[in-house]
Specification:
Order of helices and strands: EHEHEHEHEHEEHEE
Number of helices: 6
Oligomer: single chain
Number of strands: 9
Structural class: alpha/beta
Radius of gyration: 16 Å
Number of domains: 2
Distance between the termini: 18 Å
Strand content: 25-35%
Largest sheet: 7 strands, mixed
CATH topology of the largest domain: Rossmann fold
CATH class of the largest domain: Alpha Beta
Shape: globular
CATH architecture of the largest domain: 3-Layer(aba) Sandwich
Strand order of the largest sheet: 3-2-1-4-5-6-7
Length: 201
């Protein structure tokens, strides 16, 4: 299973992938891309000898052109799965069509609750006591794709988003590689009777 990873920031989820699944059980990260030219995630990938590229929106005519170039670059490296690891951009339907049911994202909330940006802040504003992480397939909506894995954590006294994110990052660093391993071994499929449901064998 050849992976392309997209990240916009520091790349801690990318690092978890590199540390736990890259080079194991036939899984290989073959490309790391970003919308941010100086994203630390790109430096992490380069240090691991993985090809990198940046696709800032300003370098392209529009989002469709940028995503077309990004998809071409990923496809040229033979990636079979695209992993969004803190990639803070919505992907166009045309991009998703290039990699059908092969784009996954990690989100710091128990979807369908609190989709989109500032998920932890949304949850805190609602006074929730249980937070969590979701790994899901990406569709044309915002964090609306079929759910692959979820894990919850009780934080009844949480007030500070940074503290919650620290706890959730530790879960992300386990859950995202776990989902990749399941997909790589062919254990994940969409229920033919219910396209909202993911079956794990």
């Amino acid at each position: 299973m050849r992976l392309a990873v997209l990240a916009s920031g520091s790349g801690t989820n990318l690092q978890a992938i590199l540390d736990t699944v890259h080079g194991h059980d036939g899984i290989e990260v073959v490309a790391v891309g970003s919308n941010v030219a100086d994203a630390p995630a790109l430096a992490r990938a380069a240090a691991a000898g993985i090809p990198t590229a940046a696709f800032p929106l300003a370098d392209h005519a529009d989002r469709a052109a940028r995503d077309a170039a990004l998809a071409d670059w990923i496809a040229a490296r033979g990636a079979q799965l695209v992993v969004l690891a803190g990639y803070m951009q919505l992907l166009t339907p045309a991009f998703l069509a290039r990699f059908p049911q092969a784009v996954v994202n990690v989100h710091p909330a128990l979807l369908p609750a609190f989709p989109g940006l500032a998920a932890v802040e949304q949850a805190l504003a609602h006074g929730v006591r249980v937070f969590g992480v979701t790994v899901h397939f990406v569709d044309e909506g915002v964090d609306t794709g079929p759910i692959i894995l979820q894990r919850a954590v009780e934080l009844p006294h949480a007030r500070d988003p940074a503290d919650v994110l620290e706890r959730l990052h530790a879960i992300e660093h386990e859950l995202l590689p776990e989902a990749i391993r399941l997909i790589a071994r062919g254990a994940v499929r969409i229920d033919p009777d219910d396209p909202r449901r993911v079956l794990i064998d």
